[in-house]
Design a protein that fits this description.
Blueprint (H helix, E strand, L loop, with lengths): L5 H14 L4 E3 L2 E3 L7 E2 H13 L17 H5 L3 H12 E5 L8 E4 L4 H20 L6 H5 L10 H8 L3 H35 L2 H4 L2 H31 L3 H17 L19
Antiparallel strand pairs: 1-2, 3-4, 4-5
Helix pairs in contact: 2-4, 2-8, 5-7, 5-8, 8-10
Length: about 280
């Protein structure tokens, strides 16, 4: 996973041979040369793409004002947070053009660690809602929503009414669905940021930077496909027997609550206004 290794070496050599100590025109000014900032291909592209999507100066670093908030800023309030997430997934190439400057390649770890982080966070939040530690207010319910998965007060109350064994099963499935949806959503936003950053003139004019962006996007595409494939396989492997048993048990409990009405017959009914 990630795009480090030989690609990073090729990129470094190409840039070094072309510019030396003078560096290259880059996002925010000259970079890569002696005494200049290094080129961090992934991070710089993501930060630029973030600001482009938010219609801000391309070098802005602070949080977006609440009045301009979007779903992107809900996921990553600042360009730096977006940058860190994407670098963790696809890796980073730190490139300089001078012989004595720092050069490095950081491999990415893919989406699986991000999925596990989401699962742990959602598990805690959902458990707290079910056991009553967290109040059932809209703000708290919004914390465990995801694209296509909405957790409402009725859902939590329905889980509370289940036996402990059923609660564990249902909550596990909800956590899996929510964490997968969240992780894929972030990966798609990361892809969008890289595509936007790739269009910056300084990046577009640097061939090795364009190639790095293309490889990063391809890496994200592969990671998304792998994650969705694993999700589909898990769903196919898991048996429906347990779900069927739970449905039948719920039906039996409901049936036991329905007491049939039996007409009451008075053994000594009134006759002509009196009891015989």
């Amino acid at each position: 996973m990630g795009i480090g290794g030989n690609d990073a070496v090729t990129a470094k050599k190409a840039v070094e041979a072309a510019n030396g100590d003078n560096g290259v025109p880059w996002i925010g000014g000259q970079a890569g040369g002696a005494g200049q900032p290094v080129l961090e291909f992934t991070g710089d592209l993501v930060k630029a793409g973030y600001n482009i999507n938010m219609n801000r100066p391309i070098t802005a670093t602070g949080p977006v004002p609440p009045a301009s908030a979007t779903r992107l800023t809900e996921i990553w309030p600042t360009p730096t947070e977006a940058r860190n997430w994407v670098v963790d997934v696809v890796g980073e190439n730190i490139v300089t053009t001078c012989d004595t400057c720092r050069k490095d390649s950081i491999p990415g770890t893919g989406l699986l660690p991000k999925l596990n982080q989401e699962s742990m966070a959602v598990t805690v939040e959902l458990q707290n809602l079910v056991n009553g530690s967290t109040p059932l207010i809209l703000a708290n319910l919004d914390k465990i929503t995801a694209p296509g998965v909405a957790i409402t007060r009725q859902v939590i109350e329905a889980i509370r009414e289940m036996p402990a064994s059923e609660q564990s099963l249902i909550m596990g499935r909800l956590v899996s669905e929510i964490s997968t949806a969240r992780t894929v959503e972030k990966a798609l936003y990361a892809r969008r940021l890289l595509l936007s950053g790739r269009q910056v003139p300084e990046v577009y004019a640097t061939e090795v930077a364009r190639e790095h962006a293309d490889k990063s996007i391809a890496e994200l595409d592969k990671e998304i496909e792998n994650l969705l494939f694993e999700t589909r396989v898990r769903k196919e492997v898991v048996s429906d027997t347990i779900a069927t048993l739970l449905q039948r048990a719920a039906a039996r409990r409901q049936a036991s609550l329905n007491t049939p009405e039996v007409p009451t017959i008075d053994p000594r009914p009134l006759s002509h206004g009196r009891v015989p």
